[in-house]
């Protein structure tokens, strides 16, 4: 099943510019919109730069290296679909290539702590039926150089 196939399953399709984010995501990079006029990144995707109001935006691929700004553990399932999948870690991260951006991601493996180096990826998760999930995992210091 391709991402195009999964974008419209069960009415869970992302809308607007988020659809473009999930189309461009995957592999070893994380796409973010960047303004061609002021050169600043922004998140969430939108049709205008929130900093200078320019409509001249391009998508740039970041390598996904990030640092944990805040972290928590989710212990309560909020939907039937997620029952039995708790506990899991969530992290708010800042990207090495775009430190002004903060993005929430679900932790895979050991729970990250504030200040930890992580690698962020965006992937389709067929097990959960999600059309796309932003994940992070702890990064070995060797991988950050």
UniProtKB/TrEMBL annotation:
Protein name: Zn-ribbon domain-containing OB-fold protein
Coiled-coil residues: none
InterPro entries the UniProt entry points to: ChsH2_C (IPR002878), NA-bd_OB-fold (IPR012340), Thioester_dehydratase-like (IPR052513)
Naturally occurring in which organism (per UniProt): Nocardioides ginsengisoli
Residue intervals of the ChsH2 C-terminal OB-fold domain: 59-122
Span of the signal peptide: none
One Pfam family this sequence matches: OB_ChsH2_C
